[in-house]
Amino acid sequence: QSALTQPASVSGSPGQSITISCTGSSSDVGSYDLVSWYQQHPGKAPKLIIYEVYKRPSGVSNRFSGSKSGNTASLTISGLQADDETDYYCCAFGRTYWVFGGGTKLTVL
Amino acid sequence: QVQLVDSGGGVVQPGGSLRLSCAASGFTFTNYGMHWVRQAPGKGLEWVAFIRNGKSDKHYADSVKGRFTISRDNSKNTLDLQMNSLRAEDTAVYYCAKDNSGWAFDYWGQGTLVTVSS
Question: Is B3's pLDDT higher than 80?
């Protein structure tokens, strides 16, 4: 159950858009459309922001969007806001059950 | 509203045991699968275990297989994690999480810290 690969950090200016990639294999990201994304502020529990690749839970801003191509999933945050600055994790359900990415720290400049 | 309250964490010596619990409310517990997910200090998230709503189907991460046991009591709306043969690398905050029936974790407990140290 190797972790999915995410960039350690990304940055963007307020109002801009950023994309965080999540690369796995045909055994996880590429096996089903069951990729989810989580936002985690320091000292807090993670919050689900995207599930089944692109679906948003009720109450999650439409500034968050997800996509997938082959073995790589992506999270795009548009109209960056200061409160978006925190950690983001992808997760995929596959042949070895659930595997998370290593996490990406988003900095809003 | 959905609420998950984690408890049972503490300090334990290597080789020891600990039992975590999660009290669920605000949803029909029997209808959903439940997970344990952990996070070592300063590290990322790691899925630990899953139990389906019917209790018979359980899955574990390779790192805990044979040492940890997930269980649930649908009459009490509680989820447990029995952890045996604990190692230093099991030190983490442990979260219970509800499955949204789409293999994602839509609600999380506040977490409980387990420290394995002599």
Answer: yes
